[in-house]
């Protein structure tokens, strides 16, 4: 991919379940702790290096924000850092929470 792709929540859930994609939640800490998709990594400036260094660059990453806007810039940035399959979740956490359960801190 030269450009990130948009993905809806149904396709994202399928990618998570079938291909072991990583869901990276870029919302602020308070929002993340109050509720997030099960298994989502809280992607912050502090965890970014860990993601880039430890994540298989060929494995898909789905970036989630509040509404699907901020995740687009983050997704494009991850591509520039060597990750190959990066998606921005359309509708963000709000769309996810309407369909799938969320959890508090893991």
Automatic annotation (TrEMBL):
Class of enzymatic activity (EC top level): transferase
Domain Rhodanese: 17-105
Key words, A-Z: Cytoplasm, Transferase
Lineage: superkingdom: Bacteria
InterPro entries given in the database record: GlpE_sulfurtransferase (IPR050229), Rhodanese-like_dom (IPR001763), Rhodanese-like_dom_sf (IPR036873), Thiosulf_sulfurTrfase (IPR023695)
Subcellular location: Cytoplasm
GO cellular component, one term: cytoplasm
List of catalytic residues: 65
Family listed: Belongs to the GlpE family.
Alphabetical list of HAMAP family matching this protein: Thiosulf_sulfurtr (MF_01009)
Entry protein name: Thiosulfate sulfurtransferase GlpE
